[in-house]
């Protein structure tokens, strides 16, 4: 049981870091979408976005997956419906993470194709997925 508690603590820490970045990066994109390509603001945002993704979001996602899957194995959670729904939502969150990475590369090469409103909606998608995941873990409605 002590191992499971440590895994849970490390998982929660990783998820908090992952979600902080996932909520912040689209907000940076909102500002970046309105910045003139090549401007000082645009170049500063490029650095911030790259560092946020590489130093915080990517490692935190990896740690969240590792500790989460390890907990699922140790706790034999695979047959629980709440866990299956949570896992599906986490897969969707990971896919959104992939889209954020792609959009960051677009900004880096001055090839953004989306509006600030688009990135506001992406930010809300992160929030909706996060709410669903928390409900599955805490309430366990299934």
Structure notes:
The protein has 4 helices and no strands. The chain has 142 residues and is an all-alpha fold. It has a single domain, classed as Four Helix Bundle (Hemerythrin (Met), subunit A), CATH 1.20.120. Helix 1 runs antiparallel to helix 4. 26% of the residues are buried.
Entry summary:
The chain has a single domain, classed as Four Helix Bundle (Hemerythrin (Met), subunit A). The protein has 4 helices and no strands. It has 142 residues and is mostly helical.
Alpha-beta content class: mainly alpha
Q: Which residue ranges are poorly predicted, with pLDDT under 50 across at least 5 consecutive positions?
A: none
Largest sheet features? none
Distance between the termini: 24 Å
Broad shape:
elongated
The number of domains is 1
Q: What's the gyration radius in Å?
A: 17 Å
| Strand tally | 0
Number of helices, counting only DSSP H or I runs of 4 residues or more: 4
How do the helices and strands follow one another from N- to C-terminus?
Answer: HHHH
Helix content: over 70%
CATH topology: Four Helix Bundle (Hemerythrin (Met), subunit A)
CATH architecture: Up-down Bundle
Mean pLDDT: 97
- Beta-strand percent range: under 5%
Classified by CATH, the class is Mainly Alpha
Which assembly state applies to the chains in this document? single chain
């Amino acid at each position: 049981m002590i191992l499971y508690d440590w895994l849970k603590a490390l998982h929660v820490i990783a998820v908090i870091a992952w979600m902080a970045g996932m909520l912040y990066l689209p907000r940076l994109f909102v500002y970046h979408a309105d910045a003139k390509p090549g401007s000082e603001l645009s170049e500063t945002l490029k650095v911030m976005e790259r560092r946020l993704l590489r130093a915080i979001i990517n490692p935190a996602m990896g740690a969240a997956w590792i500790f989460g899957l390890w907990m699922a194995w140790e706790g034999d959670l695979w047959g629980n419906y709440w866990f299956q729904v949570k896992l599906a939502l986490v897969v969707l969150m990971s896919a959104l993470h992939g889209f954020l990475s792609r959009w960051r590369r677009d900004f880096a090469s001055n090839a953004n194709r989306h509006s600030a409103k688009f990135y506001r909606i992406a930010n809300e998608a992160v929030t909706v997925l996060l709410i669903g995941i928390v409900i599955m873990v805490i309430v366990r409605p299934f």
